[in-house]
Predict the structure of Histidinol dehydrogenase.
Amino acid sequence: MRRLNGDSADFESALAALEVPMDSDDGDVRSTVADIIADIERRGEPALLEYTRRFDQLDVDAICELEVSREELERALSELPGEQRDALSEAAKRIETFHRKQLSDDWSYDDGLGNRLGQRLTPLRRVGVYVPGGKASYPSSVLMNAIPARVAGVSEIIMVAPTPGGYRNPLVLAAAALAGVHRMFCVGGAQAVAALALGTTAIPRVDKIVGPGNRFVAEAKRQVFGRVGIDMIAGPSEILIIADGSAAPEWMAMDLFSQAEHDESAQALLLCPDAAYIEAVDAAVERLLPQMERSAIIRASLDKRGALIQTRDIAHAAAISNALAPEHLELAVADPEALLPLIDAAGAIFMGIHSCEALGDYCAGPNHVLPTSGSARFFSPLGVYDFQKRSSIIHCSAQGAVPLARVAQVLAEGESLTAHARSAAMRIVD
Amino acid sequence: MRRLNGDSADFESALAALEVPMDSDDGDVRSTVADIIADIERRGEPALLEYTRRFDQLDVDAICELEVSREELERALSELPGEQRDALSEAAKRIETFHRKQLSDDWSYDDGLGNRLGQRLTPLRRVGVYVPGGKASYPSSVLMNAIPARVAGVSEIIMVAPTPGGYRNPLVLAAAALAGVHRMFCVGGAQAVAALALGTTAIPRVDKIVGPGNRFVAEAKRQVFGRVGIDMIAGPSEILIIADGSAAPEWMAMDLFSQAEHDESAQALLLCPDAAYIEAVDAAVERLLPQMERSAIIRASLDKRGALIQTRDIAHAAAISNALAPEHLELAVADPEALLPLIDAAGAIFMGIHSCEALGDYCAGPNHVLPTSGSARFFSPLGVYDFQKRSSIIHCSAQGAVPLARVAQVLAEGESLTAHARSAAMRIVD
């Protein structure tokens, strides 16, 4: 694997060369998606049917024929091999347990003047979950996107997934049943995102759209943002491992592979102060890579974006990690608790050598929908809070309103908003 | 004012005719802004200087000359007339008190297998606060945008505000001092948003940009979203009042004006089941309107987008309000607590006749940055949570990892991600 030294003069530029530009900087994708959205807005269901025919080779007369019944979802679950059904159920249970901890309560307080101020939380009414078709169609994604919505109390969870040629992935259907998806339609692409954002005859308009997708889907989500909520703008997945040599080098190699196998654009980095250990990890990478089913993808990803980085010490590794704000951060060190205070931004932090990313990807409980491309600087993991909205509550009493009105009047006059000032002043009553 | 009846056959279309399209559906604005952002990205500070010269008539050699020192901010505060300084301080204090209630703690739990799972909150490191110049330059906005960032613990709050011709609004500077702004630059427009998102020689790159602005600023925020966080896509401001006749009609008229005076595109609606009371409010509107300083704007707004709507009953009014998801909702009724459970989506809810919007706009405590154009369906008021990021924590013990690894292995194999499966399986140790 590529080796970098965190102290060399060209380190920053060498690291920057491993970054990828954000997907939707592509003007062609942008205009194609804009056209599709405009077409769905203008023509509705006939346009959706046409795109589905063209992109998914599905020729139906009405979108309602592409709705998957709740019975079909349940049947897929019951027909799953026992081992898979048990694993999926266990994962769903653990994901639900974690996300229930994210529920919070309404609150209010009296300001001492007789006014009550507070905040109220209510679930979104209807959300759309996008599930990719084809090679990146993952039942675990269905669980991770739909369960927080259900825990939040969303009344209607609508899932869309393209089914090119009509093939319906039974694991995805089973996961939908387990996660509590209310309705599912076999449509996909930018056209499905547009249908969810705008509503069509068969597909109701939603309040928010979540879930991963290709760059057309990602760009469509970006373009409908504001009309509906979206989860985040996702780029290629990344792992950054800070290692002190506590783990077997083979563990580190396989953890790097588990990121790299997603996609040639995925990024796997390992940071360590110990040159000999880096050598050992590199040797393990070369030894294990030929055995991997997805070795071509892994090799391409590691060549393009991977690196083993020698740092001055562990604190230096933490500083580099903070600048990158990785999606997944493994602290593969003997004392992860001591290292944690040095960590600022990361989507998910895997503490210690037994906490490999794969456990978090599937079943530990926390969400695997995480901010990518450095956006952990400002985005958070998908959570129950993404499926709730807050309202401020302002309840002034007749007496309590008076001192507030005096302050508001002065400030409104300072801003030349005299109707504001008079509206406040009217509440100054004896 | 325009009268509508909530039961008439054409009600929905009449109400829809009062909506405005989202700002950035304008292709010219979109491409102008894209060009400005690309130019700042390519040329950095020289481009920023050029735009500032062109749009703000400020001819300086370097952007650092446009930085306002902390001393100048403090001086503006101390030189303010006593009444204004006291009012601004009182507002700042109340806003801080409210937002402190939004702070929440890290949490974690043991899953019973020896694994610890949790969530960690950390402040964003650096945020940008955009403050408009000219007629919409409001010190209250400075408080509402910067105080939650300070409460969250953001290390560096960078404020930008255009100062056309070099005029620095002392109220805005004073508010910046009070709110705890760390650095301020006199730049504005899409170019200032781009500078904050990308960083230039003088202006450091931020993690998130908040604050209101014209449609170029709003579109710039939309375009940089993903590279940095943004607060929300804001449209024209709105009020919806549900009234049962408990308040003097003049109060209702003035509350409608206080929204309408913002802008010709602002919207003011009153819903009430009582025809006679609607008549009385309308008469009060006609009687008071000629006295208002901003009567031309108010008249234009009411003509274009305002309405008095007769409903079957209060529950019917609540249903219409829920469909609109208003930014500001006044429950001007005798028993607002009884009505609240019927309310779903609204940015801020003003309970009872003494709780007029103006009190919330300035000093009640809750934020006045609220979701507009129906986006209260999925957006929340600006809050401390907007200036924090969450990280998931996954800490598996050697024994605790084993059952998780078994589940992950089955699911990863089901998704043909065999490196994931092997990475998990390696943690199955005795």
About this structure: Chain A has 17 helices and 15 strands. The CA atoms of residues 399 and 430 of chain A lie 8 Å apart. The two ends of chain A are 78 Å apart (CA to CA).
